[in-house]
């Protein structure tokens, strides 16, 4: 961890990412910390480092779960799924997020010293100071959560441990040899930082006088707009902080951690319901949010609770994921396990439906299936994709590291209008990094409310059944949803919620962590499906999953354990 401080240098992040004014670059990207106190723009540059490394939807960690296989032989997530995960090799490690924590602590140290003048106007100066301090507190909490999610676990004695929580900047020769807090103490520290940030941040960045929080009553609207106007609407806000609280609280309450002890399901449900009720309750679920990644900016903006700026016409992800016949590498291959999670059009799981025909497997299925997965015979990317007999280079196992391993290619997150030409040129589409979607918030409310009181327990007027009904209706499940109507127990609703979460948040980096927090099996063998020209045949063992029993809790990097005697490793690693 000392190396994080030794290697710190300031990198200004410009308006294209987070919607702030452009600052003059710093000579050689370096400066003395004393200089920061004199130049507000440089101080803000320090804060903006907290926006680097935010977790978005493009990790594709699903390749280390039962939902996908990566066709690249040396892919890191493939390697850990096949048994290579250890304290020296862990592509899911987030220990380096502590670097962002120390950036935030340095910024807070400077702000609290009261030496920076953000504006000659006294009111504006106070607003700037409060807002940016709120940002720093929230980002400090968020980066601690990233580390906690990836490294919380049980000690050899069975104690549930969190992580070290740093609230001060430590010089490179300072003491980093500090023990881990308990898991709950870490969660409390994160929530405390979030709560302090909420006191300082506006709910939303807006130019509309009617949407300004009452705590700003009496402040000149023009001054408010200058500090908290729509120019800053990609920065962390009060609304985003409340959403992040729900994510942290649900994680904490989950079976592998506090298992319902404490008030965490309530914190998750109440904060989620509060936000959802500001957008019209369950009726506010974006009707087009299933394909939030499309080039339709209106769809993107109203489904994405927090995102980066919408980027230019690119095709980076499509080059990796498109099938080879349309000049991609076909990297992520959804499994039959994942395809089987999609119910029939009437909402009934295929395992319980008399209508499901394994020789006509995609007929009358949940419409989300063909939106998220390139099926055998699909039109996609400018061509028809056949993954079975007669499929050419798209055929299963046709060309190593290009063709599918499972009989499927990924469609979700990709822009189907992108064209990749054989000469390497592309016709790209806009993309955005997504940090939090409203659909996730709805699913958090459903999961937490059900755990509190079952399918029909209401939190601020909304129940798990209400949420799941709206999500499945949006998906195109035929109405009335008789299968949902048959769900009357907490256990049955839990299973349904988890399946809806698996589908709705698929390939956005959630399942890798969901399986762990639920204490679910990590070793479900990845399956495939192949059309031989006459019939469909299941491939029961495309790729094994080889995790050790203690891999629910991920390791702390061995290099840190070796350096710091007070830092205890998770059991087994």
Q: What ranges have pLDDT less than 50 throughout 5 or more consecutive residues?
A: 9-30
Q: Radius of gyration from the CA trace?
A: 24 Å
Report how far the terminal alpha carbons are from each other. 19 Å
Strand content: 5-15%
Mean residue pLDDT: 93
Q: Name the quaternary structure.
A: single chain
Helix run count = 21
Helical content (DSSP H or I, runs of 4+)? 25-40%
Widest sheet: strand order? 1-5
Largest sheet: 2 strands, antiparallel
Q: Briefly note the structural class of the backbone.
A: mainly alpha
Number of DSSP strand runs: 16
Shape: globular
Description:
- The protein is mainly α and 573 residues long.
- The protein is built from 21 helices and 16 strands.
- The strands form 8 sheets. It has a two-stranded antiparallel ribbon with strand order 1-5. A two-stranded antiparallel ribbon has the order 2-3.
- Helix 7 (122-151) runs antiparallel to helix 8 (183-200).
- It is globular.
- Residues 9-30 have low confidence and may be disordered.
What's this entry about, in short?
The protein is mainly α.
What layout of secondary structure does this protein have?
Blueprint lengths: L1 H5 L8 H4 L14 H4 L3 H9 L19 E3 L5 H9 L13 H15 L9 H30 L1 E2 L5 E2 L21 H18 L20 H8 L9 H16 L10 H15 L18 H7 E4 L8 H6 L10 E3 L1 H5 L27 H5 E2 L3 E3 L2 E3 L23 E2 L8 E2 L5 E2 L6 E4 H16 L4 E2 L2 E2 H12 L6 H4 L4 H15 L6 H8 L7 E6 L4 E8 L14 H6 L10
Antiparallel strand pairs: 1-5, 2-3, 4-12, 6-9, 7-8, 10-11, 13-14, 15-16
Helix pairs in contact: 4-6, 6-7, 7-8, 7-9, 7-10, 8-10, 10-11, 10-16, 11-16, 16-17, 16-19, 17-19
